[in-house]
Design goal:
The chain has 667 residues and is α/β, with parallel strands linked by helices. It has 20 helices and 31 strands. It has a six-stranded mixed beta sheet with strand order 3-2-1-4-9-10, with helices on both faces. Strands 11, 12, 13, 18, 25 and 26 form a six-stranded mixed beta sheet that branches. Strands 29-28-27-31-30 form a five-stranded antiparallel beta sheet, with helices on one face. β12 and β13 form a beta hairpin. The longest helix has 31 residues.
Length: 667
């Protein structure tokens, strides 16, 4: 029997992981490299070259490459992404009030066009004049477009015409809503399309960087990307539908957790630099969220694992509220570049500034904070306001101290907008710095972490007392806060799975007493009924204490630090196609979805054609996505009513799913 080497890559907000996996021997080598946002290929090369060297394997022996990423998830959680233009066909301004679409759109432009279709696919005339009038100017201020048409899932003709017109004039990427979902619900489908458009350039850069690196190393293997439901899709499809990669990293980590622990029932929590992702494993499989993934507070139409993502990680911003008599710490949801990491790469820009600030007799408002460009391509900075452009021009690829950069209070809000666009990183105090000061992490610059904490110790609470007596004292308080906040988000996810989602652990006095083990006449206790699997590079330093607080057994596998990359190579390809049959009048049956609209006068023949189309399209998509020998299953859902003793068809749905292991390169 021939066996193969498989390469798994996971690109996260802080680290890029690589695993060389053998079909029989399992993990052969693993490595980490810092994610280099200005050029993702550098981080990928660092990790992949290390595993190839460690394993002593020729690069040409690799038969499959599979990629997972948290970049899309992180961008949505942090409110980042490129500026996109939204084109709504058959919708009006009131539709922006639904599904959180107005909040997601923010200041990005929207164009309304007459047109769209009805539930049976019949069209209202499309008017393109309004688009033609604004398109040339609009194209200069956005990096991509999103197009959503009324009932486009029943007839996508208008979306296709608008897409073709935009591409002809602007030459920019365009996402159509019918390409992402077959479900009804126009505003939420428009929201999903808008988020997809914002992510196009990011995922295109990631996949392109990986493809270029593989070509440079002579690795001629098929390349796959993990979807949010844990399945694999081809790299080319991922570039067209990057929204499907939200929760890619977390989904891969669940697959990896099951492989590494063998546990059928567990709570899986994956802590990264930016987020903590929590899911419940039942009978060896994660539950899929049929309503669509929720990321960054937005309910999308992307089918994904029922995982909850929280803006809490090792690189979370430490926010200190010193106004009360007792100081309060809160972490996240924004990620900062840790001072220890910034000083590791730019010591001359960080350490002298921190030393100067520590020597100063007074604590400045912006002490311990720096700004640095993320290094994204210049065209992604299009559409900046004059004040934003002026401040952006003062920030380079070397961190600059905020006490030197900001000269007026309004500039702070301007800087925050640049951060939200993904153009600038803020550097500051994080739990990772606290861990370095306590000697529990050692990979970055310890002096910078200590100096940042020393500045923090000078903050005073409402009674004019310092919030911490020593650097170590403040570091412990930050780590304790991470432990407690992690316990709260894990409990929130589990309570939601139990149907008690209206109970907020962060606000419950009973849960607070239980987590603190406070004595009383009435004793409160809280515990998980299954092990807590901790994943992530820092899992071993955080999760034993978190599991103890939750009254659970801690399960941290040996390769917990690269579980995502392992999950990426043991996943399967899975695609689905949905075909609809509706009856607008007696004796007439309309087939829509996954192709042209057809009319039948015989229900049975319409159903037969729907089954055949769903099966054929699912198989075709699975093969296009690299499945070697896909197997198809079909689910039929028929809604009918009994009217005066006669059966009346309302809608029938035929959902075909094709799955199989990815095709590997021939020897």
């Amino acid at each position: 029997m021939t066996s193969h080497f498989l390469l798994g890559i996971d690109t996260g907000g802080t680290y890029t992981d690589a695993v060389l996996f053998h079909e029989i021997r399992g993990v052969v080598a693993k490595a980490k490299s810092l994610t280099t946002r200005h050029d993702l290929a550098i981080g990928i090369a660092g990790a992949v070259d290390a595993v190839i060297s460690e394993a002593g394997v020729d690069a040409s022996a690799i038969s499959l490459v599979s990629l997972s990423t948290t970049l899309a998830t992180n961008a949505l959680v942090e409110g980042q992404g490129g500026r996109a233009g939204l084109v709504m066909i058959g919708f009006g301004p009131d539709d922006l009030k639904r599904a959180g679409l107005a909040d997601a759109l923010g200041s990005d432009p929207v164009v309304y066009l007459e047109g769209g279709h009805d539930v049976h696919g019949n069209e209202n005339p499309l008017e393109l004049a309004a688009l033609d009038e604004v398109l040339p100017e609009l194209a200069r201020g956005v990096s991509s477009f999103a197009v959503a048409g009324y009932f486009a899932v029943r007839n996508p003709a208008h979306e296709i015409r608008v897409r073709d017109r935009i591409r002809e004039i602007s030459h920019l990427p365009v996402t159509c809503s019918h390409e992402l979902s077959s479900k009804l619900g126009g505003p939420r489908r428009a929201l999903t399309t808008l988020l997809n458009a914002r992510l196009v350039s990011m995922i295109d850069r990631l996949v392109g960087a990986c493809e270029n690196f593989l070509a440079a190393r002579g690795i001629e293997a098929p390349m796959m990307v993990v979807r949010g439901d844990g399945a694999l899709i081809s790299a080319s499809e991922a570039k067209l539908r990057p929204i499907e990669t939200i929760l890619s990293g977390p989904a891969a980590s669940l697959v990896g957790a099951r492989y590494l622990t063998g546990l059928d029932n567990a709570v899986v929590s994956d802590i990264g630099g930016t987020t903590t992702d929590v899911a419940v494993m039942e009978a060896g499989r994660p539950r899929l969220d049929a309503d669509g993934a929720v990321v960054g507070g937005y309910r999308t139409m992307v089918e994904a694992v029922a995982m909850r993502t929280y803006g809490l990680g090792g690189d979370s911003e430490v926010r200190i509220n010193e106004r009360g008599l007792a100081v309060a710490f809160e972490l996240g949801p924004r990620r900062l570049l840790p001072l220890s990491l910034a000083a590791e790469t730019h010591p001359d820009a960080i350490l002298p500034v921190l030393q100067r600030q520590v020597r100063s007799p007074h604590l400045g408002r912006n002490d311990g904070r720096f700004a640095v460009r993320t290094g994204v391509p210049d065209h992604l900075a299009s559409g900046l306001q004059p004040q934003e452009q002026a401040l952006f021009d003062k920030i380079g690829m070397v961190p600059v101290a905020l006490d030197q950069l900001l000269t007026s209070t309004p500039q702070k809000a301007t800087l925050d907008r640049l951060v939200a666009r993904g153009l600038v990183h803020l550097c500051g105090l994080t739990p990772s710095d606290a861990m370095h000061a306590l000697g529990r992490q050692e990979q970055w610059n310890v002096e910078a972490a200590q100096l940042g904490l020393a500045l923090g110790c000078r903050i005073k609470d409402g009674s004019a007392r310092p919030i911490a007596s020593t650097v170590e004292d403040l570091a412990k308080k930050i780590v304790d806060r991470l432990t407690r906040q992690s316990a709260e988000v894990i409990l929130a996810a589990c309570l939601s799975e139990d149907g008690v989602g209206d109970l907020d652990p962060a606000k419950s006095k009973a849960i607070d007493r239980a987590l603190q083990r406070q004595p009383g006449i009435v004793r409160f206790a809280v515990a998980l009924d299954r092990p807590l699997v901790g994943l992530g590079a820092s899992a071993s330093v955080y999760y034993p204490a978190i599991a103890e607080m939750l009254g659970s057994e801690s399960a941290i596998p040996a390769d917990a630090d690269v579980a995502n990359a392992i999950g990426a190579v043991v996943s399967q390809v899975r695609t689905s196609a949905t075909v609809f049959i509706t009856a607008p009048e007696d004796g007439i049956f309309i087939l829509n979805g996954a192709g042209e609209t057809l009319r039948f006068i015989d229900e049975a023949k319409g159903f037969e054609a729907a089954r055949a189309r769903a099966r054929a399209v699912a198989l075709e998509q699975a093969r296009l996505n690299g499945a070697a020998d896909p197997v198809v299953s079909i689910v039929e859902e028929v809604d009918a009513a009994d009217i005066e003793g006669s059966r009346k068809l309302i809608e029938a749905r035929f959902i075909a799913t094709a799955s199989g292991r990815p095709r590997i390169a021939a020897e």
